[in-house]
Design goal:
The chain folds into 2 domains: 123 residues, Urease, subunit C, domain 1 (Roll), CATH 2.30.40.10; 321 residues, Alpha-Beta Barrel (TIM Barrel). The protein is built from 15 helices and 17 strands. Helix 13 packs across helix 14. Bound molecules: zinc ion (ZN). Zinc ion binds next to loops.
């Protein structure tokens, strides 16, 4: 307690925050009467239990996870894709046509307004940070903006407005399929060859460098469909040890296309062709054989699961039970952003396993409940995938934290894993009271500090967009 007393006394630097939680989830388990000191640079300096109350008081304090996969602009498409097309069966591929049409009308201002709105929703749902898989780069028609990184900068500006921790992942998207066909009309706003992509990436990195120091930049080759084998290798080199994200093995048709072109299923091909290490994050992986599941788990890479979107798009069910049994790492993403809810993502993941296996508590252990296993897995996987020193209530980590609403009726006098299970299985975002992103206290009383202005701008943007569609 000595160091704590020094910090809380008159010598504490300006901007130091002190939180006091009735109970909190630390790496070694649940603790009571926990005092947390956050330094002005947004890091946790000290954590102690059995403390006396002071500073900002909260009920249950948790590390707040990273949302490891988002396409911000798709938030504005919510509700636009639930009608049946003329084809006999509506699929991922018909949804993609709607997405391409929507893209034709989006301006830089629209993209910034939508990104700020969805980032605000993420923060209010309990995510402290987002890895934005950003692939819309050019004007409608495919001509680059005068500033090649214009739209990357709009994502950066949005994160500056909302205070969310950003890992920006500029996306390389250069072909319409494995056979090297050129991009279709709907894809030309995404397209770059590798040389132009490198310039874009450099400019985006400069913009990210102007954000607070917790912001990161990575690289995202879109998928094995959209980049050549040679360009994938170049992306790996460009990333170095920075986050490297790629969509992989989401749809049956995609697996068939890769198999036909490369002679192997996508996960098998990738594991044979590249040394997949812990800076890799493979998004979806809903189409894996048992052997691919254990193979991916053994790499130490993170599987980026997006259970609500994977349900919405009919992707299939990730084999979470066997993947976790093989010590695989995963995190949670909101992908299409059709609905932003951290607790619902975790619940949807678990229920998909139960429906498939006709079981209950599929990933719980004798020591930890279902909610606890899911939550801790998502914390570690999200932080690793974003290249972010967060994910734990521990000194040296960024203060990415959330407090559950101590006055919520269902949480009254609950403790430990039961609190998490109530939130995940019976609750929703309304139970999230406070959120800090690298120490930035952006959500209080369940609302983002700039909620009114961000919502007003989004409303105006959407009214104008609906006129154009
Ligand atoms: Zn995606």
């Amino acid at each position: 307690m000595n160091a704590l007393q020094t910090l809380s006394g008159s010598t504490a630097p300006a901007g130091t925050q002190i939180l006091f939680a009735d109970n909190a989830l630390a790496p070694s388990g649940w603790k009571e009467n926990v005092r947390v000191v956050i330094t002005p640079d947004g890091k946790i300096a000290e954590v102690s239990e059995g403390a006396t109350p002071e500073g900002t008081r909260v009920g249950t304090l948790l590390p707040a996870p990273v949302n490891l996969h988002s396409h911000a602009f798709q938030r504005a498409m919510a509700g636009m894709s639930e009608r049946r097309g003329s084809e006999s069966r509506d699929t991922f591929w018909t949804w993609r046509q709607i997405m391409f049409r929507f893209l034709d009308v989006l301006t830089p201002d629209d993209i910034e307004a939508i990104a700020a709105f969805v980032q605000m929703e993420m923060l209010e749902a309990g995510y402290a940070a987002v890895a934005e898989f950003h692939y819309v780069h050019h004007q409608p028609g495919g001509t680059p903006y005068d500033n090649i990184a214009e739209l990357s900068e709009r994502i950066v500006t949005a994160s500056s407005t909302t205070g969310i921790g950003l890992t920006l992942l500029p996306v390389l998207y250069s072909q319409g399929g494995c056979d090297g066909r050129s991009l279709g009309d709907g894809q030309i706003r995404f397209g770059n060859d590798f040389d132009r992509f490198q310039k874009l990436h450099q400019a985006a990195a400069r913009a990210v460098a102007a954000l607070p120091e917790d912001a990161r930049i990575g690289v995202a080759p879109h998928s094995l469909r959209a980049v050549t084998r040679q360009d994938l290798a170049r992306c790996v080199e460009l990333a170095g040890t920075a986050p490297l994200h790629m969509h992989l093995a989401e749809q049956v048709k995609e697996v068939e296309e890769i198999e036909a072109a490369y002679g192997k299923r996508p996960v098998n091909w990738l594991l044979d062709a590249h040394e997949v290490t812990d800076n890799w994050c493979l998004i979806h992986c809903t189409q894996m054989t048992a052997q691919e599941t254990s193979g991916l788990a053994a790499t130490g890479a993170v599987a980026g699961l997006c259970p609500i979107t994977e349900s919405s798009l009919g992707d299939g069910i990730f084999d979470g039970v066997n993947y976790l049994a093989a010590k695989g790492k995963f995190g949670i993403g909101s992908d299409s952003n059709i609905r932003i809810s951290l607790s619902e993502e975790l619940r949807t993941f678990e229920y998909s396993q139960r429906l498939r296996d006709k079981c209950r508590a599929s990933v719980a252990t004798p020591e930890k409940s279902t909610g606890r296993v899911l939550y801790e897995t998502a914390l570690a996987g999200g932080a690793q995938a974003a290249g972010r020193a967060s994910g734990a209530l521990a000194p040296g980590r960024y203060a990415d934290l959330l407090a559950l609403d101590g006055t919520a009726l269902d949480l009254d006098r609950t403790r430990g894993d039961e609190t998490l299970d109530i939130w995940v299985f019976a609750g929703d975002d309304r139970m999230v009271a406070d959120v800090w992103s690298a120490g930035r206290h952006v959500v209080t009383g369940g609302r983002h500090r700039q909620a009114e202005a961000i919502r007003d701008r989004y409303r105006t943007t959407m009214r104008a967009l609906r006129q154009k569609l």
